[in-house]
Specification:
This is DUF1292 domain-containing protein. Pfam families: DUF1292 (PF06949). It comes from Paenibacillus filicis. It is a single chain. The protein has one domain. Helices cover 21% and strands 38% of the residues. It has one helix and five strands; from the N terminus they run βββββα. The chain has a five-stranded antiparallel beta sheet. A hairpin with a 5-residue loop joins strand 1 and strand 2. The longest helix has 21 residues.
Length: 100
């Protein structure tokens, strides 16, 4: 898992192997999404995905679940969990921006 954001400001040498996921939105439209960041909050792992065809669009956060040693992405349905995770992610982004 990544501990930093892989975008145009990433300034070190290593391969940026894209992890592509097909995500269906609430209207039934499929989007190719790229995992760009992972982080932990409250002992759970989360992933930030961006639309591969619209990298300027807002990212989407999913919870990473594991079952039978297989990892998969799960939507965050609980509003309290969502608010907590977004707040933690925003703090991470602010800290990284201050370091640059």
């Amino acid at each position: 898992m990544s501990d930093h954001i892989h975008d145009e400001s990433c300034n070190h040498d290593h391969d940026h192997e894209e992890e592509i996921f097909i995500v269906t939105d609430q209207d039934g439209v499929e989007h190719e999404m790229v995992m760009v960041y992972t982080f932990e909050a409250s002992d759970r792992a989360y992933a930030v995905l961006l639309d591969r065809n619209d990298m300027e669009a807002d990212g989407v956060i999913f919870r990473i679940e594991e079952e039978n040693e297989e990892a998969y992405l799960a939507s965050i349905e609980d509003e309290e969990e969502w608010d907590r995770v977004v707040a933690i992610y925003n703090e991470i982004i602010e800290e990284q921006e201050q370091e640059q």
